[in-house]
Amino acid sequence: MINPSQLEKSEMIWTVVLNSENEEVIPKAVNFLIKTYLCLDECLSDNAAQIQQDLIEKCMNLLTDEHSSSKVVKRVLYILKNIVKESEKRGTGGV
After folding, report:
1. In percent, how much of the chain has pLDDT > 70?
2. What separation in angstroms does the CA of 72 have from each of 1, 19, 38, 52?
3. Rounded to two decimals, what is the model's pTM?
4. Which DSSP category does 66 fall into?
5. Phi, psi at residue 22, to the nearest 5°?
6. pLDDT (0 to 100) of residue 82
7. 3-state secondary structure 3-55
8. Is 26 left (phi over 0), alpha (psi -120 to 50) or beta?
9. 3-class state of residue 77 by DSSP
10. Does residue 83 surpass a pLDDT of 60?
């Protein structure tokens, strides 16, 4: 029951999301990443806004990193788009 960004293998998820060449894997990996940050246990519900902010900050850092390739930028924009979609499904309380 910890912040998803502190999970032991969380960077592995990011690596798959940002670097996968398999078009079938990308949406599944992005969905898994987003759900990791948005589908929280009740014990983390008090920190939900901060956890979601951590996800968005990570995305923004990747977007502003001068070493990010155009592929990474496109993936991050895809992640952000899907965060908005997932939030809309959950209602205004999701973001």
Report:
1. 78
2. 29, 8, 22, 20
3. 0.78
4. T
5. -85, 115
6. 93
7. CHHHCCCHHHHHHHHHHCCCCCHHHHHHHHHHHHHHCCCHHHHHHHHHHHHHH
8. alpha
9. helix
10. yes
Q: Which of 81, 77, 86 is nearest to 18 (CA)?
A: 77
Position 4 scores a pLDDT of 61
pLDDT at 95: 47
| pLDDT tens digits, one per residue of 24-62 | 999 999 999 998 877 765 555 667 778 788 889 999 999
- CA-CA distance, 39 to 57, in Å (whole number)? 18
Residue 23 has pLDDT above 50, yes or no: yes
Rounded Cα distance between 29 and 34, Å, is 9
Could you state, in order of their start, the residue ranges of all structural domains in the chain? 45-95
**To 10 degrees, the CA torsion angle through 18, 58, 56, 30?**
20
Contact status, residue 11 vs residue 3, Cβ threshold 8 Å: no
